[in-house]
Recover the amino acids of this structure.
């Protein structure tokens, strides 16, 4: 079961990873996008961290909602509404059942897909969300699986987002949003959410 | 990177302050946001709101004023603004009869503006949107995020701004906007790249004698890179692309915009216009409106874009000439 | 050299053709000359004629129109136009009550315009002149050809243009012009040099991290070269120079122009304006008019200049705001 | 005595020298001015040559007048009105007396000085005109004297024209206008004017 503390801890670990990897994410985005994914996410993480540290949350739903609002109002670009919609979906699902992590992540994925109209294999962040959720369902989620999913985007050809303008030239580069989503799930493992 | 700035991270805030100060007889900024709105209001008229990432100055804030936009939302450099700010802009702009959002077709912009639209509708404001995707450098296919929105957007501001001032309804303006976008195409060429202040180095590289056709206004890749050509040949390339896309007939009426991308002097823009003039004459098109200037830029990119609008609605030429009071439309 | 041009030697002619085509609702070119004149005429009003070497676009032809210049004479790039062409401009501009020549203070311009004045007077046209020397980077001494005329010239066009339209006499306008020039000072900074098309390489060299204060609009040397500084510090340097020159008092009324030198994006110009705003506030000056834009450029030079006008005549602020119809004044 | 043929021949030789030295004059002007003196003069010479070749001249005055008009209407910049005024002065003087070359050149010099308000030693073209006229008076004019006068401008500090903005930094460079005037007088010698 997710608790307010666990969830907060998870998201703060996520923020830390993003700060550490900010330049790397910018570099990934420079290769196939506009070079700002690290800066965008870091800006959002800072706002999220502030909200999480200041806030008094009575339930998991409010934690996700706070994260969603912070990202929506600070990130902009494509990743702002996408992560914002993901956490908004997770908040809604968390409101009805805090115990089912798979259902919560699925609601997050659905949030992204409704907003981004994206499908599997288009070289976006959801190409990490989908295998991670599958592995979680079969109780086999590990850091390798996450990293593997991130790496898999390298060979994909982008058909959504800015990278799609590159056509075939997008092949051979890891998708920056996939990488940042990878950090989200690594933080989830590091936060010990699964061990509870 | 050589720029007259202070901290790269404070570029947006300082620019907007300087902008608001320079034009305080026309417009205001909602504090702590990237929202610039005109102080002129007219009850009962539809309001136009546009915006997007910054770095395209004078777009879009330069076109806020009587006869054009009611408000513009300025995001971080090359980054779409956020829904909460767009919502603020919608609220300050609405004069009771609805707001039209003019969105350049980038995933980020579309998603953020759509979220703002949903939020505004929840607050009881009538909101419609049109999506501008005039850049024919990229094909609209299932393999791309669609065509990009570029310099033509300024002409959309102008034409729909006049329509709004004339008192057309939200539905009418939206319909006109959609028809306009379908009849408007742009294609550009870059001869040197832009440097985002926070990145500190150019977004792509071009050799000393190279140019690239079809580069986007955020440095998105174009369709062909080659040795730099004389203006005349560049004009032929761009006009040929547009001709194929429009399939025009002799005698068709068009409007033309030659747009500088930021670091390109007017000297070059007018020379290009001169070459263009000859080609359009050969094609026997009737040019009812022409404009030259750096209206939709890409920070300090050097290059130009060419926009043509097929004037299928005869009002459009008048609307383009309709008097306005803004910081940037002459 | 990377430019969107054809033959470097035909830059002037092609640019003027493109310019005239773009603004044919406002102005015309006298064939085979660099003379651009407004089609709007008003009998019995004094006509203003300016001009100089090209490469400063939109100056001066961009300011031809109702409420500003009657005609502009465009020389080769960075080269004064010739007396016969200036004479043509005087003749086409005169509406029977005389012509005022507005000359930037360069030996070439002064000599060519003076010869034209003599020729026009021989033909019975009343001609007066004012010489603009607003650039305080160079001292006015027996060791120089005097101070140079730069961006302030555009404000002279604007103020005197409104005065002419109001019906002031040639003598009155000349007197006002002289008083205006005495109360107007400009100082600039370049961060990268300009390339004259026919020369093909930059007029001077600056290292990747260098800037130079006081560079002229033809690349004339400035007064100090140093590592590039943040906009705030550049603003302090320029304002300090102007303060020393003006010896202003708290509460004095001023107009301000932040001018881009050609390749500098509006983003930087507005950031600089923001820094300036703070300094002018500290000095407790009252700023009745502000303007930002690339109005007096130096081809593709990057940098900015700052012009202040002490508004000793209260009409000047109104004249600056007076409506005009030109290609370049917004 | 100057004849129409001699004078035309002189000016056409002058034009040739300018074409040959166009780049060199531009270079000289790049060092202390704006780099266009060669291009300016060449533009003017082309117009002058056309006028001289087309024209039927009944006297020397008309030759100089044609040269003056060509330069005035094609050169622009500082050198246009200066050379234009020089030839105009020479035309006027030639009209009253075609025999006195010294008086003609003096009228030319006066034309420059009235227009340019320049005095000796200001590092301009007149720093060639003055010594040349002096040498002519004492019947000692030679190419060395001309070249020497041109070279002398190297050590002068400019106080007129664009070079004056350089202050002390103008020292060490030959003045471009002095160099072009040097070619004018070399052409005069080459044209054999003095031998008649
Ligand atoms: N339609 C979409 N659906 C899912 N993810 C998307 C979509 N568009 C973009 N993305 C993700 O967003 C990332 C880019 O985010 P970011 O660089 O912050 O935004 P922007 O493209 O506006 O600069 C991409 O790497 C991709 O993973
Ligand atoms: N006031 C003056 N009197 C005499 N000669 C001058 C004067 N000003 C400039 N010159 C001459 O003109 C030359 C420069 O001519 P040019 O380069 O063609 O014009 P510009 O300076 O307008 O570019 C100088 O080298 C100098 O000899
Ligand atoms: Mg990005
Ligand atoms: Mg972006
Ligand atoms: Mg010159
Ligand atoms: Mg010169």
């Amino acid at each position: 079961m997710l608790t307010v503390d666990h969830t907060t801890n998870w998201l703060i670990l996520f923020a830390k990873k993003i700060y550490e990897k900010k330049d790397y994410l910018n570099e990934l985005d420079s290769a196939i996008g506009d070079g700002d994914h690290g800066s965008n996410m870091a800006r959002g993480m800072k706002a999220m961290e502030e909200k999480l540290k200041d806030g008094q949350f009575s339930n998991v739903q409010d934690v996700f909602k706070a994260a969603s609002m912070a990202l929506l109002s600070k990130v902009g670009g494509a990743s702002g509404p996408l992560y914002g919609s993901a956490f908004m979906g997770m908040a809604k699902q968390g409101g009805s059942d805090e115990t089912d992590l798979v259902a919560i992540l699925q609601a997050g994925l659905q949030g992204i897909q409704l907003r981004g109209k994206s499908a599997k294999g288009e070289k976006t962040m959801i190409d990490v969300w989908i295998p991670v959720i599958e592995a979680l369902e079969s109780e086999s989620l590990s850091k390798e699986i996450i990293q593997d999913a991130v790496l898999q985007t390298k060979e994909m050809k982008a058909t959504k987002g800015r990278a799609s303008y590159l056509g075939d030239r997008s092949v051979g580069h890891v998708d920056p949003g996939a990488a940042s989503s990878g950090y989200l799930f690594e933080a989830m493992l590091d936060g010990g959410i699964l061990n509870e | 990177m050589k720029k007259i700035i202070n901290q790269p991270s404070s570029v947006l805030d300082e620019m907007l302050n300087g902008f608001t100060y320079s034009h305080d007889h026309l417009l205001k900024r909602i504090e702590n946001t990237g929202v610039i709105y005109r102080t002129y209001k007219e009850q009962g008229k539809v309001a136009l709101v546009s915006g997007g990432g910054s770095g395209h100055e004078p777009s879009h804030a330069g076109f806020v004023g009587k006869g054009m936009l009611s408000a513009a939302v300025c995001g971080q450099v090359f980054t779409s603004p956020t829904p909460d700010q767009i919502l603020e802009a919608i609220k300050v702009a609405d004069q009771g009869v609805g707001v039209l959002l003019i969105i350049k077709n980038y995933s980020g912009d579309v998603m953020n503006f759509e979220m703002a639209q949903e939020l505004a509708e929840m607050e009881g404001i009538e909101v419609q949107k049109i999506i501008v995707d005039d850049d024919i450098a990229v094909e609209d296919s299932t393999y791309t995020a669609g065509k990009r929105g570029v310099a033509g957007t300024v002409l959309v501001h102008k034409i729909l701004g006049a329509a709004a001032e004339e008192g057309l309804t939200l539905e009418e303006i939206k319909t006109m906007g959609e028809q306009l976008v379908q009849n408007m195409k742009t294609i550009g060429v870059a001869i040197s790249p832009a440097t985002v202040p926070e990145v500190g180095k150019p977004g792509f590289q071009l050799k000393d004698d190279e140019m690239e056709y079809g580069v986007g206004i955020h440095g998105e890749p174009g369709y062909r890179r080659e040795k730099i050509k004389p203006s005349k040949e560049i004009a032929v390339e761009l006009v040929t692309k547009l001709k194929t896309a429009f399939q025009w007939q002799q005698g068709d009426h068009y409007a033309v915009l030659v747009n500088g991308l930021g670091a390109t002097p007017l000297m070059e823009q007018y020379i290009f216009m001169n070459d263009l003039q000859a080609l359009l004459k050969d094609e026997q098109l009737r040019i009812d409106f022409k404009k030259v200037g750096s209206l939709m830029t890409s920070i300090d990119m050097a290059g130009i874009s060419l926009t043509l609008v097929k004037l299928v609605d005869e009002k459009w030429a008048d609307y383009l000439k309709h008097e306005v009071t803004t910081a940037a439309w002459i």
Summary: The interface with chain A takes residues 53, 75-76, 78-85, 106-108, 111-112, 114-115, 138, 142-145, 148, 196, 198-199, 203, 216, 218-221 of chain B (CB under 8 Å).
